[in-house]
Amino acid sequence: MPRRIRRAAVSAAALVSLIAAANTAGASRVPQPPEAHSGAASWPYPDHDASNSRLATGSPITAKNLRSLTTAWNVSAGGGLATSPIVVGRNVFVEDQVGEVLDIGLTSGRVVWKSASNGYSVGPEGVAVGWRKVFGVTPTSLFALDEATGRQLWSTRLTRTATDGIDVQPQVIGREVIVSTVPVSVKGIYIGGDRGFVDAVNESSGKLLWGFDTVASPTLWGNPSVNSGGGSWYPPSFSPTSGLLYVGIANPAPFVGTTQYPNGSSRPGSNLYTDSTVALRISNGKLVWYHQADAHDLFDRDFVHTMIVPVPAATGHAARTVVVGTGKGGYVIGMNPKNGKQLWRTAVGIHENDNVKALTGPTKILPGTFGGVLTPPASAHGKVFVATLNAADTLYPDQTEYFGGNTGTMPGQIVAIDARNGDTLWNTHVPGDPTGGVTLVNNVVLTATLQGSIIGLSMSTGRILWTLAAPAGINGWLSVAGRYVIVPVGNAKPPTIWALRLPSRSIGT
Question: Does the global pTM surpass 0.85?
């Protein structure tokens, strides 16, 4: 075992802040793990914080010095990389799609420890870090490793059938680890009877505390031999003041339909709670409200991303908080955090025939089943930033379409939206498919493409400032920690964790 890289100590001020957070977190009283206070130049949650802002703090990277970023190191992984690396102090943690977890020194690029493979997963999967543990997923289970050594502490099986799976990056909320099953695995894709659950597991013991059934029908909308659906693919957001967990729920199946049941006729009705944001009490997993973005979804709309966005006061407007949801349908929706009432709904990307209720024959659909807001959005200063794929599909009423649309055929778009009212502030076309989501740092919007580029845009205007060729296509999301940008290059051979660094001489320029 290599000698351990020394971690940045948690300061006395951070410990005081931790205690205060535990004592003042409103009705929920949910303590934050010490890793959440590991320094401004860290990335301690999958989307930086429990609000899922993807807004880096404590970084000197700006629009003026972007072009000075250079390669610091590369580390090979055993499988694909399709989520955000976690950065705590001086250590980077990632999980690849064959279930290996790596601990890498942030400044050196040296692998401190690597766990054994837990088996291939569809992904995106990934890790969470909290309470001196690293939490990852196998195709069937959630597990905990000792943060310092990589030794496995516990593993809890969460799948309910032989063919459902776990493909989400976990999220640590207080003493709970939130994860979800989905009706997709290497053993079966949308097998009749499979339904996704959102689960909360105790971080210390691995005990299942509660599970929320994301399908609001004991009979799976009347036909469990054919229908399946629900679950979540991305980490939820959490409000400590209300104690509410906001989870984006995936699609129903089959989609579009089958020979016997065209146009989803095996599952009549709205198919709750698919394609919805649900608000759950963190204490017990009970449903408080839901907002369904797409009823009786035919096109794999996956309304799976959520953020909590504080909107500052402005002339004539009080400060407010908005829950924002989005997904593959290409709509961004602002919701009241208390009751889920829709405040605004904004279309992004190209839309064609996507509002039809039934197909009569082969039909071009935009966004297709691998389009829209596929990967995580971000927020800052009361604004929302999304990466949109314009990938069309030709779909048939009596055929399933489970394997994605036609990428690489149209430019993607990065869109900025005012979270107060849903107005589009700017809309920039980018070359390629921006599967790298959005990451914000100071006055820069970062994205990455399936074609292998990293792109930096002006946060205020959307103007493209900088483009950098990557070693291969990117379908994971960037993390920023101080003067480092950690890039998961999942389509490299072998897949590579690529670290860019801002030279000391460029800081302040």
Answer: yes
How far is residue 371 from each of residues 281, 329, 390, 451, 494, measured CA to CA in Å?
Answer: 31, 8, 6, 15, 26
Which pLDDT score is estimated for 21? 38
How many other C-beta atoms can be found within 10 angstroms of the C-beta atom of residue 22?
14
pLDDT for residue 4: 32
User: What dihedral do alpha carbons 146, 152, 158, 160 form, nearest 10°?
Assistant: 170
For 18, counting Cβ atoms within 10 Å of its Cβ (0-12 exposed, 13-18 middle, 19+ buried), the class is middle
* Contact (Cβ atoms closer than 8 angstroms) between residue 53 and residue 379: yes
So what's the pLDDT on residue 509? 65
Express each pLDDT in 20-41 by its tens digit: 333 333 345 889 999 998 888 9
Task: State the CB neighbour count (10 A cutoff) for residue 504.
Answer: 9
456-487 as b/e: b if 16+ CB within 10 A = bbbbeebebbbebebbbbbbbbbbbbbbbbbb
Please identify every stretch of the chain with a pLDDT value under 50, giving residue numbers as ranges.
1-27
C-beta of residue 327 within 8 angstroms of C-beta of residue 315 = no
Q: Output the six-digit token pair for 418.
A: 């005012």
